[in-house]
Amino acid sequence: MRNVLKYILFFQLSGNRVLILIQNLRLSLKVFLSLFIVILFLIFSSISQPVIALSNDKLEGESLFIEHCSGCHVNGGNIIRRGKTLKLKALKRNSLDDPKAIAKIARVGIGSMSGYEDVLGEGGDQLVANWIWSQAQNAWIHG
Ligand code: HEC
Predict the structure, then answer these.
(1) What is the CATH number of the domain that holds 114?
(2) Strand 109-110 to strand 113-114: parallel, antiparallel, or no bridges (unpaired)?
(3) 73 CB within 6 A, ligand 1
(4) Fewer CB atoms < 10 Å away: N or C end of the chain?
(5) Res. 16: pLDDT tops 80
């Protein structure tokens, strides 16, 4: 801004001042706009990053479930033991209404169900458990 004022004073004598003033304004507007866009971009990318990570986790949890659990627990049910479903009511009844408890079962199994630690991979137990837990809270109506 100080530069702009200097230019105005300098060119007042030459009669070109209006033109110079407009040019300077245009220039600072351009700089301002590009800074604004860069800042917007930075804010947007820092906000959207965790959202993308979140939905990736969800997708991964779902695909792990489809691959390793849905054979017996289709739609959160249980084709072998009718009372041992992944629905909220059964999970609460069996004190498994918490993703950590579900993750443990995913890893080591329970009763006649064997554990899936080997195939779920690093952190896969927690991902699939989180997904099951959110499905249970939505009564398994989203897929
Ligand atoms: C081969 C069939 C089969 C597969 C595959 C299977 N389960 Fe199970 N699941 C069972 C059976 C049977 C039970 C009941 C076990 C018992 O209590 O004797 C059970 C019980 C559970 C329970 C306890 C439910 C309750 O209401 O008490 C959870 C949680 C669970 N399974 C999670 C999983 C997860 C997570 C996967 C995938 C990683 C999985 N299961 C894969 C057969 C299976």
Answers:
(1) 1.10.760.10
(2) antiparallel
(3) yes
(4) N
(5) no
Q: What is the value of pTM for the model shown?
A: 0.72
Residue 90 inside a domain? The answer is: yes
- What's the rounded Cα separation, in Å, for the pair 115 and 108? 4
State if residue 70 touches ligand 1 by the CB under 6 angstroms criterion: no
**How far is Cα 19 from Cα 8, in angstroms, rounded to an integer?**
10
59: containing domain: 2-137
- Highest mean pLDDT among 45-49, 50-54, 129-133 belongs to 129-133
For residue 22, the CA-to-ligand 1 centroid distance in Å is 73
Q: How many domains does the chain have?
A: 1
Distance CA 107, CA 17 (A): 77
Q: What is the residue whose two structure tokens read 């809270």?
A: 137
Alpha helices in 12-87 (DSSP H): 17-68
Q: Is residue 47 part of a domain?
A: yes
Q: pLDDT band at 143, cuts 50/70/90?
A: low
Name every residue whose Cβ is closer than 8 Å to that of residue 115 and which is 6 or more positions away in sequence: 105, 106, 107, 108, 109
Residue with CA nearest ligand 1 atom 2: 72
